[in-house]
Amino acid sequence: MDKVERFYIGPQIEMPRIRSEACAGGVPTVAVAKAGNLAFTNGVVSNHPETGEHVAGDIRVQTRQVLENLKMGLEKAGTRFENVVMVHAFLKNMEDWPAYHDVYIEYFPEHTPPPRYTVQAEMASPELLVEIHMTAAV
Known about the structure:
Layout: E1 5-9, E2 30-35, E3 38-41, H1 59-76, E4 84-91, H2 97-106, E5 116-120, E6 130-137
Helix pairs in contact: 1-2
């Protein structure tokens, strides 16, 4: 197997609830691990990539920020949305799915998104409405 490469975007965000040796420096806005011809992102939320601050707004605003963050991470790993092969999405409220989906499909060529599953989940912080993880071919 090829060496695993790791890429990070954004400041190491301090997460007061998470304390361990493994994440003592905080959590980056986007982390991508590239192994062979695949790239795997962390679960990305709507934090600003330069400041690490939460980007407030409704589900449309937050989904757009999450996807912009993911776009930067995928590009850094040498890939892009059209190469995404699987998406895992978490919504705080499933009632937000139609608005989330409207923004989501804008990011894929000819509005043909890859397979995904979307589930309702409790978020790490109450202001977060969406979190997305992607796997892409490189």
